[in-house]
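thoughts on these tokens:
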Amino acid sequence: MNLVLLGPPGSGKGTQGERLAAQSGVPKFATGDILRDAVRRGTPLGNDAKRYMDAGELVPDEVVLGLVREALATPEAAAGFILDGFPRTVAQAEGLQALLEERDTKLDAVVYFDVPEEELIRRLAGRRSCPSCGAVFNVHSDPPAVAGTCDSCGSELETREDDREETVRVRLRVYQEHTEPLLRWYGEDSVLREVAAVGSVEEVYGKLLAVVDGS
């Protein structure tokens, strides 16, 4: 099983991808996790990425693709992989396709988690974070036992700047600008599938399994 999971912030693709990886035994690779791990280990590509990250710049596609190449070459990925949130652009998709062709393999499906914008805003703007221990809650789906207070350490919860409604709208607009061409690109290859990612975690996971099993 070789999958790409796409979806805007707040769509739940990370949660669903983790669950699918646990059930299938196929590893899930998220770009951010790959980057942080390579930087932590001090690999050559990790050091390259760190220079850009420290300067507040985007890590170039060729570095990200190099890290993805290394991840897919690990023994854990021999039976397949789940890529979470990568590729983000058509250029990255083209690079991934070339990489897979080198490995004489192909994607079984690209799954897009479709959620109405207002629902995404509700989910993201409902997040509350603990500045002390890093715990994250959601006033709608996972509220703390005492409103405004962290269950773990008792600190006062806060809304991160990234989770304020006006910031969320900008984040979603930027995502859409980059993703719409990518969805068209994969749509032309007939591997694109959509999951209506609204409902309980169980309901959405059932939809994901139906799509994956039918791909």
